[in-house]
Amino acid sequence: MTMAGSAGVGKKKSGGNLMKTVIIGGIAGGLSAASQIRREDHNAQVIVLEKSGDVSYAACGMPYNLFYKDKPVEDLYALSLAAIRNERGIDYRQHHEAVKIDPARKEVTVIDREHSREYKENYDYLVYATGNQPNRLNLPGFDEADVFYFKTLDDTRLVKNIIYEKSPANAILIGSGYTNLELVDVLYNMKVTPIILEKAATILPSFAEEIRSRMLEKIGEKGIQLHTNVDIIEKKGSVVRTATGDFEGDMVVVSIGVRPNTALFSAAGGELGVGGAVKVDRFLRTNLADVFAAGDCAEHYVRQLGRNGYMPLGPAANKQGRLVGSNIVNSNAMKEFYGIDQTAVFKFFDLTVATTGLSERQLQEIGTHYVKSYVDTPTRGAFPGGGTMRIVLMFEKKTGLLLGGQMIGQDVVAKRLDVLATAIYKRMTVFELAELDLSYSPLYAPVWDPLLIAANKAIKEV
Ligand SMILES: Cc1cc2nc3c(=O)[nH]c(=O)nc-3n(C[C@H](O)[C@H](O)[C@H](O)COP(=O)(O)OP(=O)(O)OC[C@H]3O[C@@H](n4cnc5c(N)ncnc54)[C@H](O)[C@@H]3O)c2cc1C
Questions:
Q1: 60 lines ligand 1 (CB under 6 A)
Q2: How many A from CA of 411 to the centre of ligand 1?
Q3: Is any atom of ligand 1 closer than 6 Å to the C-beta of 343?
Q4: What is the pTM of this model?
């Protein structure tokens, strides 16, 4: 891991006072940075400005919280406010919104929404961890109260409220990305019939056709309406009007992509990069002096591409935040963010859908000479409760270097994906993958683990 020197002031700022860091955004990226600073420097002053009334929470658990009427959404908090303040020694301020950054004066203007007052907070270091926001559907009728965006804990409160208060019979889900697909699964199981409207010709464009076809089979098997190539015109009452027909729903959830929250940063002269995210170097520094960025608002270094990309997911936000914290404390020996391999997983009914490494689309974009092969295998040996899974491997022609892999299936899928992610991280070939000594007991795997079967098939096609 490369180290860098820096003109940073270390644990004490020039006047001899304690180092002071202001963090904008207090969820995964922001709180990770705050905690790491305090872990490494007990004397550091850390202020977290969070505009919502919540503290760091696991957004990934939000769809599943809907199942439980009596389980408060606050159960998703990673830590209580008291623990953040008292145990971690972080000055965490809810309902405090940063509205301006003055990089020359090293000062943030803040509005305390609870007490309707404005104040300025100066900093030695600033961490920008504002996350992203859902793209809005700016069409007539989509600003009504029965239209939801499922992004924050407040959104979850609203959706939960309508589900338990109004008992909707059906829901129109606009967009078929993974968050809406997770919601399809949850709503269906709660007896709210989902109807998916998708603008594109198909779903999951970053997945291989072999994976997508199994998803579509499952959608068909469950009798879920999926309409593709849909151009929405407007919403009138409970009817969503489209160029291909009208759809009636008791509620609407829009999930048509996200964009990084960068307005404050770019207004201060901050430079943006891939996907409109905050441009960061390998140390997660921005172009503004002593301003770092982490999480969904920032770029993510994609190891296999050797450059930054944008893939906003929980683990990267936590890791980037932690590294930013460490780099602030150790400003004379900063470490690089090691990057991501684009590993992701989600559940869809009894299927686990997962990906790691480069997608076929990316391989085509960069012009790699790759081979794709797939296998369908059982997930366990002679033991009840197993299922089947499909593994797609993509690897370099001739060398067999693993480039990417995707899986879909029942039972133990995520474990296999993580083995594959490890293999990609270590730049293994399909030949080496085939040699792995993976565990076997009929309860967990067939004697030839599905990954070994996939690797052996791939070897024949190198
Ligand atoms: C429904 C759902 C399911 C998900 N499931 C998964 C999953 O299964 N796996 C996975 O890896 N990832 C998942 N994610 C993504 C994951 O939750 C995010 O990657 C992660 O939360 C990003 O953390 P963050 O701190 O960068 O941003 P956020 O969590 O968005 O936090 C940013 C915070 O900054 C605050 N803020 C913004 N502007 C200001 C301002 N000016 N002043 C003060 N505060 C401000 C916001 O209020 C917000 O609370 C899911 C996300 C959603 C919405």
A1: yes
A2: 29
A3: no
A4: 0.95
H/E run at residue 153: helix 153-166
pLDDT in tens, 422-447: 999 999 999 999 999 999 999 999 99
> Each residue of 71-99: b (16+ CB within 10 Å) or e?
eebeebbbbeeeebbeebbbbbbbebbbe
Q: Write down the architecture of domain 350-457 according to CATH.
A: 3-Layer(bba) Sandwich (3.50)
Residue 457: pLDDT over 60: yes
Q: What is the DSSP letter of 70?
A: T
List the structure tokens of 421. 């992610």
| Residues near 153 by beta carbon (within 8 Å), at least 6 away in sequence | 52, 54, 57, 59, 62, 73, 74, 76
**Which residue CA neighbors atom 23 of ligand 1 most closely?**
28
Identity (one letter) of the amino acid at 412? V
Query: Scanning the structure block, which residue is given the tokens 């420097």?
Result: 41
Determine if ligand 1 sits within 6 Å of the CB of residue 27.
Answer: yes
Q: Among 159, 332, 319, 324, which Cα is nearest to 250's?
A: 159
> Any idea which fold 3-56+76-132+258-332 has?
FAD/NAD(P)-binding domain (3.50.50)
- The angle at the Cα of 312, spanning 202 to 425, to the nearest 5 degrees, equals 95
